[in-house]
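Memo to structure team: turn this sequence into structure tokens by end of day. - J.P.
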Amino acid sequence: MARIAGVNIPTQKRVLIALTYIHGIGPAISKKICEEVGIPAERRVNELTEDEVLRIRETIDNNCTVEGDLRREVAMNIKRLMDLGCLRGLRHRKRLPVRGQRTRTNARTRKGPAVAIAGKKK
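Reply from structure team:
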């Protein structure tokens, strides 16, 4: 099992697909990494040599922000917005949708499960 950027890569999948298991690497970046290192698209992870795994690891370390560093960077950006008190920061602070979505309906992922409000007593 190959371990790249602190993530165990699945061995039976193609390298293009397996690299997307790393947070911060999608299909396009994965394809670019494979072209840079010179690995064919059909190659599977268990067929890689130690040298190829090492070259992939070096390429990711040099060119990409992944895993913990990326998560920390995103968290710091959100914290900065909240400290500034701008609209996006206030929406993050109130745990509401940030990018202009409606909240009257269809905001359940962000707002959490619906809470029933007791009716008026007679």
